[in-house]
Amino acid sequence: MHNNHDDDYQWPTCIAPNCGRQLWVAEAGRYVCRPCEDRTNKHLVELGPLFRRLNETSTLMRGARRPGGATSGSRTPPIPPRLEVLALTANGGVATRLQAIEDSWRKALGWTVAPWHGSPAQAVPEHLKFLTNNLPWAVSSYESIGQDIDDLRRLHAECTAVAANEHRPGRVSIGRCPARYDDGSLCRADLTAIASSHRVHCGTCGTRWETLGEWKQLREAQDAVLREDAGVAA
Q1: C-alpha dihedral, 162 to 116 to 146 to 83, nearest 10°
Q2: SS3 191
Q3: Scanning 156, 158, 171, 208, which has its CA 20 to 30 A from the CA of 186?
């Protein structure tokens, strides 16, 4: 409990959003209390593994099927994209948001701004290293640290939610149904899938693809139809 005998004096409080606790005497001169600093440091430490996990997922989605690649029976079928994963791992995502905070700290320190250039996978560890190393300075000397703490909290929450697949994935189009009726005609109904499952069901002819192996067969059958159509067109 703080002893305050001056009614006009406002005891300093933590400026981190949703905190506002009075600072202890040992925290004099700081903008942020130690518990909020510790939580922010924890968020920075955990963002590294979270980003790597999301980036591995986005790499699988982007690399599952190379545009213009040669057709082969062993090709891995494409994985339905999760836009929230791509949004966090691409330019404008985690790396860009961390860089914005780093740049503001560098300006306040009078240091060179944005010295690191590279892919998000290369940049994120560097940004996290800088922010972790300079967090003790920021909580004591940077007036806008409260907003940055909130931004890091939100970014951490987004990455955690997406990594845990808490968001319900939307349906995406995966091409036409390649199943044939008894007379040999193709169904050609539009097929959709969700990122969390390899199960596909054609609502027109009733054909189902339930496993990853059957998903691969579906993609190969679709490619065969495309080749067949191209041969007819030629």
Answers
A1: -20
A2: strand
A3: 171
Tokens 């599952």, located at residue:
64
8 φ, ψ (degrees, to nearest 5): -90, -10
Cα–Cα distances (Å) from 173 to 80, 106, 213, in that order, read 8, 44, 19
Count of alpha carbons within 13 angstroms of residue 143, beta-carbon side: 2
Q: Does residue 30 contact residue 139 with C-beta atoms inside 8 Å?
A: yes
**191 neighbors 175 (Cβ within 8 angstroms):** yes
Over the stretch 62-112, which tens digit does the pLDDT of each residue have? 544 433 443 334 344 445 556 788 888 888 899 999 999 999 999 999 998
Tell me, what DSSP letter sits at residue 209? E
165: left (phi over 0), alpha (psi -120 to 50) or beta: left
Does the model's pTM come out above 0.70? no
Instruction: Kindly give, in sequence order, each residue whose CB lies less than 8 Å from that of residue 162, ignoring residues fewer than 6 positions away.
Output: 54, 82, 84, 85, 88
Tokens read off for 121: 């996978």
190-194/171-176 β-pairing:
antiparallel
Coil, strand or helix: which one is 173? strand
Can you list the residues of the chain whose pLDDT is less than 50?
Answer: 1-2, 4-5, 63-78, 167, 233-234
* Contact (CB, 8 A) for 169 and 82: yes
Indicate the residue type of 116: W
**Contact between residue 158 and residue 88 where contact means Cβ atoms under 8 Å apart:** yes
